[in-house]
Specification:
- With about 600 residues, the protein is mainly alpha-helical.
- Helix content is about 50%, strand content about 5%.
- The strands form three sheets. The chain has a two-stranded antiparallel ribbon with strand order 1-2. A two-stranded antiparallel sheet has the order 3-4.
- α18 packs antiparallel against α19.
Length: about 600
């Protein structure tokens, strides 16, 4: 059979290894200068395989490039293009199977010299480096990234980077971004502040590493601003009150403290604003938290304190519009919080009552005090009435805590001083509204003074616990009591009231100074001020119930017997093992 126009080059494989069933056809002409073949001797196979091949045949002939395993093997290789024929395969010529074609091709094949050209290897592994870079990108926190994550993807698209496909984990994280119902906070968390994760609950963020700083930065950090800015008000009163003129306090102290307060408010607010931008989901979870929501009053109360403590050298009179600007967000928050207290459900006051709720009350009295000092009447009286009504309800609710309610842990005992804050500020607000420290103001002041003394004498109540941001609960209520004492001393001036004013002011100043130094130490030296905030990382799915091993019948499974045996020997005494093998009836049930 003459096939001069159809020369097929075949390389004989001497290796006993079986040839793979599926190989790929690669043309040698695509690589310039690599294993060149004369154009007249190009490997062509006319009609190599068609649909007339028997259907019972499972493996098809394939065409591929045979790359030698060594340069020595390359010298004996014939050509680059190889046509492998299985033992049971047939070669077709013009649509007709021809068994002699394969043998004739093998007989007419002549080996040719081949060049073996090596290609330079790239440094490193491209795929390995890509995998390492992908590992460095921890995407476990992406569920809390909202606006920033979208912006990052948009910038990546503008730079021409391919957009990653959404995986199953991403869809799960998207479901976590939905607003959690309040029931989940009570089911997943425990403790009066709802900050401790229950045993069977899981969190959506990793617990094996330290989270990003913004995720660990709580809204309760504004308590620092409350403490320092209230000190500016106290030293301004010490310098201007008639009952403390004998101290000869210079207003420069008020100016320095006010500037420090402004800097703190700017820093804390800027950091939390970054959290709002980059981790808005964490902020939203804090807002829906039944306890944390009270701390959203703190930024606006801090601004009210800055307005009250402004030095005379900076401004004597503030614009009235400022009061409306600062009180608008407080009014909106009160509509939400107070409405939930009345409507019932899981957010009813008897369920979420906590000393931290005083923060939602104090804003009314501070706003009334600032508005009255500006010459306003109706607005301050409105907020004073709202604050007085809800403070009475909150005061009674916290006093008659049911036996089933949990007590506050030691770390939160300083928050009890928030009981003093509301009546102290209320006495000054009413005195400013009325123009004198009358009987109504004195009643509120005496209530605050009694609560202050009742907490101060309980020394053991505030010992034996580690430092936390909750300690700032000491500060602005103590400062408020000192300022109210100076206002009362200006009306009832004697050695007792003047001495009390000095003592309370000194205690408040020392407390704020000590806490400020300790906070800086823990924040920048020890770096343990902001641990992982578990309260914002709870899952929206309830844990699956697990059957306890002691509810299973003995011998029902090997696993239950192993657990039972382990518990027996774990509690056993080395001298009496047999006694430990007996399970008391009360424990087995």
């Amino acid at each position: 059979m003459d096939h001069g126009d159809h020369l097929v080059s075949v390389e004989l494989q001497e290796s006993p290894e079986a040839v793979p069933s599926l190989l790929k056809l690669i043309s040698s002409n695509e690589v310039a200068g690599f294993d060149s073949i004369i154009e007249s001797e190009t490997s062509v196979l006319s009609n190599p395989i068609n649909s007339s091949q028997p259907t019972g045949h499972q493996r098809k002939p394939s065409i591929s490039i045979s790359m030698p395993s060594s340069p020595r093997a390359a010298s004996s290789a014939g050509t680059k293009s190889v046509f492998f024929v299985d033992d049971n395969a047939q070669v077709f010529w013009n649509g007709v199977p021809d068994s002699s074609l394969a043998s004739e091709i093998l007989d007419n094949t002549q080996p040719k010299a081949v060049k073996f050209l090596s290609q330079p290897m790239l440094k490193g592994s491209v795929f390995g480096e890509a995998a390492n870079v992908k590992k460095l990108k921890d995407k476990r926190f992406d569920s809390f990234k909202t606006w920033s994550g979208k912006l990052e993807r948009q910038l990546s698209n503008l730079r021409g980077k391919p957009r990653e496909s959404e995986s199953e984990g991403d869809s799960v994280r998207n479901s976590e971004n939905e607003a959690l119902p309040v029931d989940r906070y009570f089911d997943a968390l425990e403790g009066p502040e709802l900050e401790t994760l229950r045993a069977l609950e899981e969190i959506v963020l990793p617990d094996d590493k330290l989270w990003p700083f913004l995720l660990r930065y709580p809204v309760s950090s504004f308590g620092i601003c409350l403490g320092v800015s209230s000190q500016a008000i106290m030293w301004k009163t010490l310098a201007t009150a008639t009952s403390t003129k004998f101290l000869h306090i210079n207003l420069i102290i008020n100016l320095i403290l006010w500037l420090i307060s402004v800097a703190l408010v700017v820093i804390v607010s800027s950091i939390y604003l970054l959290k709002v931008i980059f981790y808005f989901e964490a902020v939203r979870r804090e807002y829906y938290h039944p306890i944390r929501v009270n701390f959203f009053f703190a930024p606006w109360i801090s601004l009210l304190f800055l307005a009250l403590g402004m030095p005379p050298s900076v401004a004597l009179n503030l614009p009235v519009a400022l009061w409306y600007v600062l009180m608008t967000p407080i009014f909106c928050l009160e509509l939400k919080i107070y409405g939930q207290w009345m409507s019932g459900g899981q957010r009813r006051l008897s369920k979420v009552a906590n000393p931290s709720n005083h923060l939602s009350i104090v804003g009314n009295f501070v706003g009334a005090l600032l508005g009255a000092s500006m010459g306003l009447k109706e607005g301050p009286i409105f907020f004073f009435a709202v604050g007085l009504a809800h403070y009475t309800v909150l005061f009674v609710t916290l006093y008659q805590r049911l036996p089933t309610n949990e007590t506050l842990p030691k770390e939160l005992h300083p928050v009890f001083f928030l009981f003093v804050a509301a009546p102290s500020v209320a006495s000054m607000a009413w005195a400013t509204i009325q123009g004198s420290f009358d009987y109504g103001s004195r009643i509120a002041y005496f209530i605050a003074l009694f609560l202050y003394f009742s907490l101060a004498v309980r020394v053991n109540f505030f010992r034996g616990f580690k430092f936390s941001l909750a300690w700032w609960g000491y500060t602005f209520p103590m400062t408020g009591a000192a300022i109210a004492t100076m206002r009362y001393s200006s009306v009832v001036t004697n050695i007792v009231t003047q001495s009390l004013s000095v003592i309370l002011s000194a205690v408040a100043t020392l407390t704020v100074t000590a806490l400020l130094v300790t906070t800086i130490l823990h924040a920048f030296v020890l770096r343990d001020l902001f641990p992982n905030d578990i309260a914002i990382a709870i899952s929206d799915r309830k844990p699956k119930p697990h059957k306890k091993w002691f509810n299973l019948r003995h011998g029902s499974s090997d696993h239950s017997r192993d657990i039972e045996t382990f518990l027996k020997f774990a509690n056993a005494d080395s001298k009496d093992i047999e006694a430990a093998l007996k399970i008391p009836t009360a424990e087995a049930k």
